[in-house]
Here is the input.
Amino acid sequence: MKIKRLVLGVLGTNCYIVYDEESKEAFVVDPADSYTQIKSVIDSLGLQVKYVILTHAHSDHIGALDELVSDTAAMVCIGSGDAEALNDGELSLCDYLGSYPPKSKADVIINDGDSLMIGQNTIRFITTPGHTKGSIAIVFDDAVISGDTLFFESIGRTDFATSDTRAIIDSIKNKLYALPRDTKVYPGHGEATSIGHETDNNPFVW
Ligand SMILES: [Zn+2]
Here is the structure.
């Protein structure tokens, strides 16, 4: 599958548009902000957006969710532990960052090991609690989209309402580092990395 990355919003959040070239089916990960930019990629490639997948329910990852859903009828997928937070001003940090929580509700609740199809491709989910209790990672081809769990030589903050520092480290060590070393990691903020690079160099995972 092909991946397009857009860096959106004041916190520079990565939005990924992942698509199957043959069928033109696509999923959008973390429609953070600026829907016109997301739409122009969808339209220029002629994509049919089947799913919008949220790595977690924080405000800086969901700013354009309602517009994307009303424009494409994509189904909203979110980890079971974050489904409620999506429409909660406090847990989504929307109150804190001065926005309103989305009106869109979760359509597909993701649990560990669940999978979905995009064209002939299987995309698989891993639950990675820690940054939030319902954080998820998305695995396909030789790639993982890691949300705010694992960054290039860093990890996500764990000072939020449903955060857990031990849990984020265990999620990375036991679940993400279990992926092949050459797996490309596409994080929620910043540049891409690989499982091998992080296993060898990430100072926060112990
Ligand atoms: Zn976050």
Observations:
- Residues 2-201 form a domain with the Metallo-beta-lactamase; Chain A fold (CATH 3.60.15.10).
- The chain has one domain: 2-201.
